[in-house]
Specification:
About 0% of the residues lie in helices and about 70% in strands. It is mainly β.
Length: about 140
């Protein structure tokens, strides 16, 4: 399997008649409003979100079943992994492409900056980075 693209969005819809995918409200940045006294830098706070990480994979040899091991990592602005998930993608014989969706309900935030969703694919018993999706988080502080 070959990675084609990954997009972070609020919602995706698949038309049942045509199988067309619509991605709604693609997300590149989140602005958080927070009281200054409630925030402590370098102390992870779980921020509730409703996001989906959608990927498309192309299958070269569709004459057989294809199995793909991937790993999704979330890195904070200090480049520290603060979340990860391992997935096993399976495409039945005859399928030429595969979509996968990961629902994200919360993000651990410890400071503002660029967070990275890193998609890694297992090849020859080694994980290789196939995509990095940035998410810029800005914290707008209010006084108590």
């Amino acid at each position: 399997m070959k990675h084609v693209w990954t997009i972070l969005c609020e919602k995706s819809i698949i038309d049942s008649q045509t199988n067309l995918l619509s991605l709604l409200n693609c997300v590149e940045e989140i602005n958080l409003a927070m009281k200054e006294s409630k925030f402590q830098e370098n102390n992870n706070r779980l921020i509730p979100v409703n996001l989906e990480l959608i990927s498309l994979w192309s299958i070269d040899d569709y004459t057989k079943e294809n199995i793909n091991e991937i790993k999704i990592e979330l890195k904070n602005p200090q480049n520290i992994i603060i979340g990860n998930e391992n997935l096993l993608l399976k495409a039945k014989k005859g399928k030429k492409r595969l979509r996968n969706k990961i629902n994200i309900n919360e993000i651990p935030v410890n400071k503002e900056g660029r967070y990275i969703f890193k998609i890694l694919q297992k090849r020859n018993n080694k994980y290789i980075t196939v995509s990095e999706i940035p998410l810029d988080i800005t914290i707008l502080f209010s006084k108590d």
